Description:
Elements: E1 2-7, H1 11-21, E2 27-33, H2 36-46, E3 50-54, H3 62-67, E4 74-79, H4 85-90, E5 95-98, H5 103-123, E6 124-125, E7 136-141, E8 144-149, E9 153-159, E10 162-167, E11 173-174, H6 178-184, E12 190-192, E13 197-200, E14 204-209, E15 215-219, E16 224-227, H7 229-239
Parallel strand pairs: 1-2, 1-3, 3-4, 4-5
Antiparallel strand pairs: 6-7, 7-8, 9-10, 9-13, 10-11, 12-13, 14-15, 15-16
Amino acid sequence: MKKALIIDDERLARSELKKLLGEFPEIEVIGEAVNARDGIEKIEYLNPDLLFLDIQMPDKTGFELLADLDKAPKVIFTTAYDEYALKAFEYNALDYLLKPIEPKRLADALHRLRQQEEKEKLSLSGLRGTLTEGDQVFVKDGDRCWFVKLQQIRLFESVGNYARVYFENNKPLILKSLNALEERLDERVFFRANRKHIVNLRMIEKIDTYFNGGLLLEMKGGEKIEVSRRQAVRFREMMSL
């Protein structure tokens, strides 16, 4: 069962989508939000697996809402406008549904969700349950394969529907979302710095202050990663005596 949140400023659009989703028992609508601010609040305390997200809303766009999140659920955009389709997929959208939503297109989008989850389960062998930093995982990218200890991985970076894995001089791509990775990684070692990056705390070379209360981490491989303002508060709490 997947928990879904509908975010749309039009009441009739929310009602119609909720009615359509009633035909899919694997989806449970756990809430509705009337704008981006309401959506962000409900994402934080309801922790949905899936968003049905409108793009044009009075306070912020759906894109701006996602940019404000450190960790975003899977997203299916719902909109009356087709000109945002290309930009939508830059935000790792599962699908882009035009209103009025056709039942067949909704079924296709949910089928795509199931397919992606099945692929993610197979994409990083050995990722079952929480792993310690000494555990070894199998990473495959095309024809190349590696057995890597988690302690050697300094960084995971979101790239579309994939994650780039940084270790030594290698940067292979795996079909795994950052959210799925975060669920399996030891939070005492791997920290979600922002919407696009998970860092190995033991691989941080340098920490600098950044604008708006954020932090800038320099990794041992030379990568510079911004810690969002919200996550910087958590980072300071974790790292202080």
